[in-house]
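The aim of this short unit is practical: by the end, you should be able to scan a pair of folded records and say something sensible about each. We start with the first protein, listed as its amino acid sequence and then its structure tokens.
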Amino acid sequence: MHKRILFVLIYTAFVAFAVSCSSGSSNTHNHSEKQNVNTEVYYTCTMHPEVHSDKPGKCPKCGMELVKKEAAVSDSTQTYNHTDSMQNQ
């Protein structure tokens, strides 16, 4: 009787462990999906954010230096998540 209870407890623990490992693999899959996000790099003026350039230089409106920006572009939703490159350093 004690052996049967011990066997059931060990088996239950093994099943619980296996289930928790398999749910972790879906998190790995989600993480790999997040890596499919493309990053667009451009340069813009801090005073005139509508000014975009593919290389560094000066703003044609005010002459200020253009700062580097990175926009995360998702393939599925085509939304832009702008991040300031100065914050990433």
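Turning to the second protein, read its sequence before its tokens, just as you did above.
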Amino acid sequence: MRYYTRESKVKTLLQKHKSVLLLGPRGSGKSTYILEMLNELSSETFIINLLETDSFRKYLQNPHILRQEVEYKLKETKSLTVFIDEIQKVPQLLDEVHLLIEKHKNRCHFILTGSSARKLKKEHVNLLAGRALKVSFFPFSFEEIDIQVNFERILKFGMLPEAYIESDDELVVEYLKTYAGIYLKEEIMQETLKRDIQIFSSFLEVAAFANGTPVNYLKIARQIGVSDQTVKSHYQILEDTLMIRKIPAWTFSVRKQLQKAAKYYFFDNGILNALTGELRVELKKSSYLYGRLFENFIVNEIIKYNELHGFDYHIYHYRTNHGSEIDIILQRNFNSVPVAIEIKSAEMPSYSNVKHLNGFLLEHKNAKACVLCRATEPYEENGIFFYPFEYGLKKVFELCG
């Protein structure tokens, strides 16, 4: 398979003179990467940072100024690349971008970055209808770094570039705590939830502890004293601001009654630990916390690998009302082979630890099953494959066919 990084897909599209809408969580390195890449482009560049107060106010009050500025620059150059950072802060600019792409499609290209799709959706603005290709951007992935170096540190602090690169653990802890605080202040308060900030803060902590488990909206609502609809809307905010990823339930079973509640996973282990207050907790390999963080890490790497390689596989979880549970079901489409994936943080899990996978294989004759774990070499037992997780993260997609 071809090697990919977070950046390679963006670079490929820009080399083909396509405009790009790049969406990723704050701190994932979008702006840094784009600014470095602009130095490699042959065309002239125009950079707008909407985090700058004066730029934000100017374009918010008069979005059409963008068109005037761009067209003036096009009088002096054959090709122009316009980089607008944090486009969701002034979503009305997308209409101007749309017009400029149509009018100057061979001469003017845009790189738009954002850390939230919520305001774009909320405002019902023009999302460019394919004129700017949407690309997801993530923290570091296992393909970009040597994951075995300080793996426990990665499990604890995650792979946001600033947390990963910083060698002082105390500074990393403060960075991640500040990140969570800034998120509350800048994202939630901007969503007109100022009066509910304490409730949302409580919800965030509960949601973090519910990470990776089928969500019971009513139970969470009772815990924090709101309605279940409020809880659902809060989860939607987390989805739209790219803090979590929803994993729906796999329901394609004719014999078993299945639980249909979704699971949610926070996008980064460091942020998850910041929200649960466990950044300073000692991480022991045999502990429940280690297993929980290992699962969150693996699920996020499956999501990254799927999107960075453009596979578009469907990712589900599986659980019956009788308690049989499988962490991930990976499937190309309804008619393709489902791959059941269990995630175990042990170094050498045995068949007895995952024998419930056989029930799934018996019910779905063409299905395949595997375990992603910390083994050093792959092995097979009773038709179930046990993979070292780095190798297995790639192999599971091959099993789908």
